[in-house]
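Supplementary Note 3. Input sequence used for the single-chain structure prediction.
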Amino acid sequence: MIERIRIENLGVIAAAEVELGPGLTAITGETGAGKTMLLTGLGLLLGGRADAAVVRVGADLAAAEGTFVVEADSPAAERAREAGAEVDDDGTLVALRTVAAAGRSRAVLGGRTVPQGVLAELAEHLVTVHGQADQVRLRSPARQRAALDAFAGPEHGRLVEEYRAAWAERQRLTAELGDLVDHAAERAREAELLRLGLAEVERVDPQPGEDLELAAEAERLGHAEDLRTAAQAAHDALMGTDDALAPPAAVALVDLARRGLEGVAQHDEALGDLARRLAEVGYVLSDLATDLARYADEVQADPGRLAAVQDRRAALASLTRTHGGTVDDVLAWASQAGLRLLELEQGEDRTAALRERIEALTAELAGLAERITAGRAAAAERLAETVTAELAGLAMPNATFRVELRPADAPGPWGAEDVEMLLAAHAGAPLVPLGQGASGGELSRVMLAIEVALATAPGTSRPPTFVFDEVDAGVGGKAAVEVGRRLAELARGAQVLVVTHLAQVAAFADRHVVVAKSDADGVVTAADVRVVTGQERVAELARMLSGQEDSARALEHAAELLERSVVRR
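The predicted structure, written as discrete structure tokens, is reproduced below.
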């Protein structure tokens, strides 16, 4: 339920706030006063498209704020919490929508900024809006089918959703099967190329990091003599040679220095530490000399091994040029290629499995479609009877409403038939599709009759709030009275808001809101949107009846109309 709406700088409205409640609320006012701007603000709160043109001239930002009351375990509350919104303990949920004159909009729900789409999703659970555009939409087969399915009840709705899920799966699998069949030759060529590549990798049998190891070995073997000579020279420098003319060995010089320090170390502990460090250096140099001698002995030129290494590197290079920059890249390609080849080789098995699953889904869809058709046929009869009876009460006593099911050329995503609603507006008139022979006023009453039928059908779930924007257009006299009475009946179990220009409709309201332009500058302010009661309400009804709220005859007629509407509820 909508508890409150506050808007700022929206159209002609500078600032306004309306407290709403359960039952029927009528919103009236002179043409151009801005009463539809209240519904424009509500539309923004319900995720409608933001248009910078609605921002009041001279203002930078328009804002609409609404307070909704939702049940703690309702789908609306659950969706709000999923979006991160906070729902108060009393079920209050606040929504805010702003529209900048520059064109950008912002939505806030329960203190959390959310995408516009979240408000639209929430609206599906909160409000049903009917306006002049809905008369046009009511003519579409899709809208008529949706209304019939809603009237058929939740069990039927679940059956339709099950059918749609199966239909979507079959469409997906059919597309996959088509792709497999259409590209079979390409897949075969791809598989053959993968087999050849994998066979070559298997023949060469590269090992992880092998190319780097062979490169290092080739470098070593190609410079073996230089390496051995350098190692031997380093060894001789450390340990000395038999050549008397050679410079002193490093190990001997370090040992000489150590002995010199040790001879006087007893006189100074610091010098003793240095002597010990020299001894350690001597040990390290001796070990290093031993390792250099071993390296010089081991490094030997091996032309045979070098040739083998070069041959192996050439084989690996052929792989890396084809499949990657390094041997590790080649191995990674081989891993992926093996998986892809397995997938391609399973193509025939996948094709057979797809055909089998598609056949099963086709049979399942046929069974579901048959049950949906039966459910729609039964619901069509009940809906036709209910709407025809409602139309009789809406000053169309001789009207006949019918819902026909016509087999489709082929089953579609919604079932095996098309739904068409027909209307004979008066006795002797032929049954024709909605919109072909009905006036705007008659379509308004048909739409209202369908909505009442949906709202009162056992087991159907409808949003708690209904909004009608001049649904009484083209209606007058007795028909207007009956429209008001039907709205009041609908409001017994729901919150109903109606923007109306007919006193006969407004008289049935539990709450009457009047929107008027300020006499000063034509801008609506908070003071110009008010709930009227008593004589103020009688005066407003008189204005709606005759255009003169101070006419004694009009006031008398308005008071009588108000009294009769109370009796007729």
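The chain has a mean pLDDT of 87. The CA atoms of residues 60 and 199 lie 71 Å apart.
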